[in-house]
Amino acid sequence: MIYDVSLVVGPEMLTWPGDPPVEVDPAKRISKGDPANVSELKLGTHTGTHVDPPFHFIPGGATAETLDLSVLVGPALVADLRGAGDSITPNELEALAIPEGTERVLFRTPNSELWSKTPVRFPDSYTAMTPEGARWCVDHGVRLVGTDFLSIERKGAPGHPTHVALLEAGVIILEGLDLSGVEPGAYELSVLPLKILGGDGAPARAILRSS
Fold first, then answer.
1. pLDDT, position 211
2. Is residue 119 over pLDDT 90?
3. What is the DSSP string of 138-173?
4. Cα 78 from Cα 30, distance rounded (Å)
5. For the packed helices 161-168 and 131-139, what is the interaxial angle rounded to 10 degrees?
6. Nearest of 127, 130, 129, 94 to residue 112 by alpha carbon
7. What domains are defined for the chain?
8. Which among 205, 189, 206, 200 has a CA at the least distance from the CA of 46?
């Protein structure tokens, strides 16, 4: 079975405060005599489901078009943190008993329930990873971490230490997942970010396949 864990891109979608809003404007329409329907799309590089490459916070780091696709495609664990509070710390990570050798971990938290609300509003609080949690992931050989909110880090964290700890170590961050329809367990992940030249981020379509 295939699960689409990507957010729908559209003008009404939630974006990070201060980031460019999404615009989808009709440039050509058959109904107006044009030979085809063509739309103009405007959005930020961290819109919806997206990948953070190292360059997002690390000067000179790898950019979106240079990311190793072998990290973006492969076995992944959807970890159950639905009962977590607002922080993913080493204590929560240890309690998950993540199998040794796991390279891709997607965290299903209470955040996923936000996407079913209408309209979706930026929450006062959400589950985010602490810098210590990030270092735990690095120390345990995780190469990709996924989160079910627009950022893996607490809003306003000085110096963005969670992002820096992960990205300095070459860990790819996948943000903006909707895991509300996915049970925790083992899956095959495929996530392909747009091949943006020099991209500090890239919107992506992400799917999970169960055996």
1. 73
2. no
3. HHTT--EEEESSS-SS-TT-TT-HHHHHHHHTT-EE
4. 43
5. 10
6. 127
7. 2-8+45-209 (3.50.30.50)
8. 200
pLDDT tens track for 40-99: 999 999 999 999 999 999 999 999 999 999 999 999 999 999 988 899 999 999 999 999
Q: What is the pTM of this model?
A: 0.96
Q: Which pair of tokens denotes residue 54?
A: 């190292």
Which residues are identified as catalytic?
A: 56
Q: Retrieve residue 9's tokens.
A: 């891109």
Residue type, 25: D
* DSSP-derived secondary structure letter, 20: P
Q: Give 31's DSSP letter.
A: G
Tokens of 134: 């990030």
Enter the tokens of residue 201.
């981020």
What are 19's two structure tokens? 């980031």
